[in-house]
Design a protein that fits this description.
alpha+beta; 266 residues; 8-stranded mixed sheet
Length: 266
């Protein structure tokens, strides 16, 4: 992941502006002024090149698991069987597509019992944060060996497991996925850029890449941010690492929280 800038000389564009330039989101006058600055500033030109290379590296990551289209939900939701065909990962170097079967099961809690029925919804309030329902939520599938299952709150996972995250949103906006692990290290799982990425409305939409879990054990908390604007993510990541007990809840964002339990493989 590209290191984020900590400070910059006065007059230099922020990572957020450079990221929006890459995404083609700047107004014509802003784009012209920013490119003129890059032509005369070697520091910013190098930073812009690093961000551009980071985007290229992100697009070159292993493709996500291919999730099947979701059938219309019945009036009473019951466990369903799913067929899942993942894309071949670069690490395996295979050319054939493996057929995987998703087995719906109750999520396991940190002690192996059934977990809660859903993730907490956290939204900004006048004092701290409060639990709140909302239309934005995150989900994930766990791929292990040649099998994959839908995950849920309290899911027991292991180092080396591959998680394919999804989001569900009633309207278009901007999205980011942050994590704080058992060692209180905060990470930005999605996107690769400096700001929340634009998304369209949809149900269980897979993110364009998956995450392979590292060796850090313990409870890990995942935060899905559904925002109305492309908020800068590095300040949120740094604040989360400094105070893991405080969910990131910037103004204009709705936050969905899911906990998983990372244990050593049996």
């Amino acid at each position: 992941m590209i290191p984020f800038e900590r400070s910059r000389p006065e007059g230099c564009p922020s990572d957020l502006r450079l990221d929006r330039l890459l995404a083609g989101e700047l107004a014509p006058a802003e784009e012209q002024a920013t490119r003129a600055h890059l032509d005369g500033c070697g520091r910013c030109a190098a930073r812009f090149a690093a961000l551009d290379a980071g985007r290229a590296a992100f697009l070159a990551e292993p493709p996500p698991l291919r999730l099947p289209p979701r059938a219309p939900a019945p009036s009473v939701r019951r466990p369903r069987a799913w067929a899942l065909v993942p894309a071949v990962t670069a690490a395996l170097g295979a050319a054939a597509v493996l057929a995987l079967v998703l087995r719906t099961r109750p999520p396991a809690g940190p002690t192996g019992d059934a977990g809660p029925t859903g993730g907490d919804r956290v939204a900004q309030a006048e004092q701290g944060t409060r639990t709140k329902g909302g239309d934005g939520r995150i989900g994930f599938y766990v791929a292990r060996g040649e099998g994959a299952v839908p995950g849920g709150p309290g899911e027991v996972v292991h180092p080396g497991d591959r998680l394919q995250f999804t989001y569900s949103a009633a309207e278009a906006g901007y999205f980011a996925l942050l994590s704080v692990d058992g060692a209180h290290k905060a990470s930005i799982y999605f996107p690769a850029g400096a700001a929340a990425a634009p998304i369209q409305a949809g149900e269980e939409v897979p993110l364009p890449s998956s995450v392979v879990l590292d060796e850090t054990l313990g409870a890990e908390t995942l935060y899905g941010l559904f925002c109305g604007a492309p908020v800068d993510l590095e300040p949120l990541r740094a604040a989360l690492e400094s105070a893991p007990e405080r969910p990131p809840a910037p103004a204009g964002c709705r936050v969905d929280r899911v906990l998983i339990d990372k244990r050593a493989a049996p």
